[in-house]
Amino acid sequence: MRVAITRGVSPAIGACELTLLEREAIDIDNARAQHSLYEGILEELGCRVEHLDEEPGFPDSVFVEDIAVVLDEIAVITRPGALSRRGERASIERALVPHRPLKHIQAPGILDGGDVMVVAKSIYVGLSTRSNAEAARQLGGLVASHGYRVMKVGFSGCLHLKSAVTAVSDDTLLINPEWVDASAFPEHSCIHVDPAEPRAANVVRIGNAVLFAAEFPQTGERLSALGYDARPVEASELAKAEGALTCCSLIFEVP
Ligand code: GLY
Fold first, then answer.
1. 3-state DSSP of the chain
2. CATH number at residue 206
C-alpha cells in the first residue's frame, strides 16, 4: 500500500517565496483545481491520499515535499532554508508519526526536501540557497545505519535539485544537463529533457508510471518512446509559485 501526503493550496499562495521567478498572479481556483486533479491521479495509481488542511499562515505549505524525507525505515524532518516555511513542520510531523520513526535536521543545517533525491540506497543532496553541506552531513549520519549513502551535488539554474533531475527508475534519471552535470550520477543512465523544455526534469515516479508536467509534451514523448508509462499532469498554476510535481506530495509505502 502507498500513502501520499498532500495539503490543500493555502489562500496565501500569492505571497509565496520566489527565488528565480518573477512574481505573477496565481489563480487560486485554477491552482486548487489542478491540485485536485493531481491528487486524483495519485489515487488512480493506488495511493491512499492523506490530504492535510490548508495552512492560511504558510503560503508555500502546499509543497509538502520540502518538509520531510521519507525513507522505508525513518522519516527525516527537514529544517527548511526559508524562514517562512519552518512553521510547516508541526503538521507534517503529526501526519508522519503514525507511519515512521522521526529524526530531525538541526541548526545550523538547512534542508529542503526538494533538494533531496533518493534513488534506491543513494541519496543525492543538492547544495542550494535552501540546503547546505551541514544538513547533508547530518542526513548522512541519520541514514547510514539503514544502508544509505549521501552524496552532495552542485547545480544551478533552478531552486531545487529535483527541478534539474529526478529518477524515472532505480537505474535511470531524467535530467536537464544545463542545470546539473550528469557526471554527478555515475551509477545511473541519464535521459535528457527536450532542450526546449528546461523545466521538464521534475517527474513523479509511482510504480511503473511516470507523471510529467503537461506543459512539457516533448519530454513526455521521449519518455513514452523509451517505454515508460508517461502520464501528463496539469501543473502550470503552482509552477508560478516555483513548485513542481514532486513538491506537492510525500509518497511512501506502508504495510
Ligand atoms: N515557492 C516555493 C518555495 O520557495 O519553497
1. CEEEEEECCCCCHHHCCCCCCCCCCCCHHHHHHHHHHHHHHHHHCCEEEEEECCCCCCCCCCCHHHHEEECCCCEEECCCCCHHHHHHHHHHHHHHCCCCCEEECCCCCCCCHHHEEEECCEEEEEECCCCCHHHHHHHHHHHHHHCCEEEEEECCCCCCHHHHEEECCCCEEEECCCCCCHHHCCCCEEEECCCCCHHHHCCEEECCEEEEECCCHHHHHHHHHCCCEEEEECCHHHHCCCCCCHHHCEEEECC
2. 3.75.10.10
